[in-house]
Amino acid sequence: MSDTSGPILAADGTPLKKKLAQTLFRSRVRAFGLVFPLLAFIIISFIVPIILLLTQSVYDSRYADLMPNSTAAVANWDAVSDPTEEMAAAMVADLIVARETKNIGKVATRVNREKSGTRSLFTKSARSAKKMEPPYLDALIKKDKKWADIETWKAVKISAKKFNPGYVAAAVDLKYNADGSFSRQSEERRIHGMLFYRTLEISFLVTVFTLLLGYPVAYLLSTLSVKTSNLLLILVLLPFWTSLLVRTTAWIAMLQGQGVLNDLFVVFGLATDDDRFSLIYNKTGTLISMTHILLPFMILPLYSVMKTIPPSYVRAAKSMGAKPATAFWRVYFPQSVPGIGAGALLVFILAIGYYITPALVGGQDGQMISNIIDFHMRKSLNWNLAAALGLVLLVFVLFMFWLYDRIVGIDNMKLG
Amino acid sequence: MKLTKTLLATTALAFAAGAATAGEITVVSWGGAYTKSQVEAYHKPWMAKTGNTIVSEDYNGGLAEVKAQVEAGNVTWDLVDVELSDAVRGCDEGLLETIDPAILPPAPDGTPAMEDFIDGAVSECAVANIVWSTIYAYDSSKMENGPKTMADFFDLEGFPGKRGLRKGPKANLEMALIADGVANTDVYEMLGTEEGVARAFAKLDTIKDSTVWWEAGAQPPQLLADGEVAMTTAYNGRIFNAVAAEDKPFEIVWDGQVFDLDLWVMPKGAPNKDLAMDFLAFSTATEQLAAQASWISYGPARKSSAPLVGNYATKPDLAMGPQMPTAPENFATAIQNDFEFWADNQDELNERFNAWLAK
Fold first, then answer.
1. Closest in B94, B348, B354 to A103, CB measured
2. Residue A184 falls inside a structural domain
3. pLDDT tens string B10-19
4. B351 in reach of chain A (CB within 8 A)
């Protein structure tokens, strides 16, 4: 044998290593080609819109685009000294243009978010801006004395910032000030913190309830013969396949003041006809219906994990003298933990963004953060704040996911 | 850009050529008895006259859908029935088409349209059709000595039972202040101050635990009929409809009513602009507004319609005049919804109301 310790060659003379890499690359391209349509679909219809919407939570160029002169003028203002003639002149020039281009409403709406009452101040002043003569500050104040108020100019300064942390701050009950600092929102307007807390509380309770109710059911399903368990599984899946709205309305019929359950209570003397239980349009109603609706999401992962636990382990433990409870807690239960983890995470994350059910049965104290996001999307039209609330919720869910990974480990999760 | 222009031009041509053939417009309103009155008084006569069709859709108020359609450049609605504050805000934000008042027909006696409409009924982007009112009502079969004043609504001891209120600050804050003894003329001035707002919420606090909140206009008569509430605020036409068409024993308390206008607006870029404008002018003519008033007890927005208001369409012995919010005996303590105040303060007050509600 001659000393040719060169690379091993393939049949066509190329080095085998290179050839192998080529083949692997080709198969990867093919695999990617198969995944590509789904990936493109998700990026276009899911990721991009989410990113676009989320940017609204920190970026709002409406004022800066429509009122360029006053934006530049207030940028150098320290938000402490009195408003200057230069600022007023820029403001009047902008107002004239905004009125002519019919954008004054957009500007006014934007500033009004920072200070109530500035909307009419802007629209009114814009109407007569064309007739104003220098000195402009006096002309503006003559039109409305709110222009002499430093708070008005502070609102302008905040509105003029393109990258604006104000919405995210508002989402966590903080107020972004003109000097760049943050302070707490006044007490009667603090709402989001309480709603985030309630959302967490409801999601946590629903997770616990579904676990308590679902664990025995999943255990039963996994231990019965295949024939019986399949039949029973259909009972779990049937509500799962039923429309969410149908199930929620069914709960309304069950739980309302004149509903089935209250009628039964009256018949059995647990309640009187004038004093029925309030089971719906409050937190109780939200908890009951959400627990029911999310139950399959707990049972199914539990069931799929429990099916893989060989019954011989528990039998072995018992044969070695363990009491049934010990055998369950020390042998069976630890093996079902991946199912609990998967089910709990699934239910918790679904619950945290739940919207329709609390909207229908939540009344006043069963509303969750998603309902206020909906309010800002549909009623108040403050999409920036809605996006900011969504951002906070998203960050929180990611944090929970990270926490879960640290404590339980994602690898430990089994969905089936 | 050029392509778009060509396309637009062709569409316009096709439209002009197709004017003889039947078109279709989408008209959006609040549903229930109210939409029915519009269908009977406006839609049917217009369809019969022009041969076009109207697709009628329902919504729950607010500008969100209009905003979404306009901003996505995919407008499917031609005409929307909105509240005054939304008309003003939509116009300010450039979401609405401007309406040329010259298209509005004069009154039968020749009075120009602009003089015939009541104050504030015709604005840059909107034309009013009715005056409606937020009142409160109770079931007279369950309460013999019924409530008479706004203060009675907040009197849980004198008139026990649950209350129904619209889930939002509008009209509720005004009513709370009136019930607390504020003079009608001072209500909005009072609400402009921190003490006034606090006072209104304090008054609402007294009935908060006994309140059922409603959102859609069709809910309050249902709540009353089901016995879920003893009395509830409502839109006066809805209660009238329950009384007249369904023989419910409901009684309206007019004291402290908060009245408002409903207006037609056109989303910017409406697909069938010309046809919809034609319908708008037709439906706000004297005769049509008067005809609507025989289907539902909302006052016409034209002065010339008032003398033409007759009796209830399906009950010829029921005169509609006294059922109107604007009838003199009902109107004495009425206040008009101040759209300027609400446009300025609704963000803050909504936030406060939601925070108050969630507590």
1. B94
2. no
3. 444 444 444 4
4. yes
Count up the domains in chain A and report the number. 3
Tokens linked to A358 = 């609390």
Distance CA B177, CA B173 (A): 6
A380/B346 touch (CB, cutoff 8 Å), yes or no:
yes
Which CATH number does the domain housing residue A362 bear?
A: 1.10.3720.10
Same domain as A24, residue A81: no
Return the H-helix or E-strand segment holding A143: helix A136-143
Pairing of strands B79-83, B163-166: unpaired
Contact call for residues A360 and A368 (beta carbons, < 8 A) = no
Query: What is the arithmetic mean of pLDDT over A291-316?
Result: 92
Nearest CA in chain B to A377: B64
Calpha distance A356→B359 (Å, rounded): 21
Q: Is A197 exposed, middle or buried (0-12, 13-18, 19+ CB in 10 A)?
A: exposed
In one-letter notation, the amino acid at residue B237 is: G
Looking at the structure, do residues A152 and A75 belong to the same domain, yes or no?
yes
For A349, the domain range is 192-412
B336 burial type by CB count under 10 A (0-12 exposed, 13-18 middle, 19+ buried): middle
Are both A367 and A337 inside the same structural domain?
yes
Cβ contact, residue pair B340, A120, below 8 Å: yes
Q: How many CA atoms lie within 13 A of A33 on its CB side?
A: 6
Tens of pLDDT, residues B293-347: 888 889 888 888 888 888 887 777 788 888 888 887 888 888 988 888 888 888 8
pLDDT of residue A415 exceeding 90, the answer is no
ipTM over 0.95: no
Q: Are A104 and A123 in contact (CB under 8 A)?
A: yes
* Same domain membership, residue A367 and residue A232: yes
From chain A, the residues in CB contact with B64 under 8 A are: 377-379, 381
Note whether B286 and B305 are within 8 A (CB). Answer: yes
Partner residue opposite B93 with nearest CB, options A109, A191, A195: A109
Q: What is the DSSP string of A1-69?
A: ------PPB-TTSSBHHHHHHHHHHHHHHHHHHHHHHHHHHHIIIIIHHHHHHHHTTTB--HHHHH-HH
Beta strand ranges found along chain B (DSSP E): 24-29, 53-58, 79-83, 126-139, 163-166, 211-214, 231-235, 250-265, 299-300, 311-312, 315-319, 335-336
Find where tokens 């302070």 sit: A183
pTM exceeds 0.90: no
Task: Give which of B85, B347, B348, B356 to mutate to test A binding, by max A Cβ within 10 Å.
Answer: B347
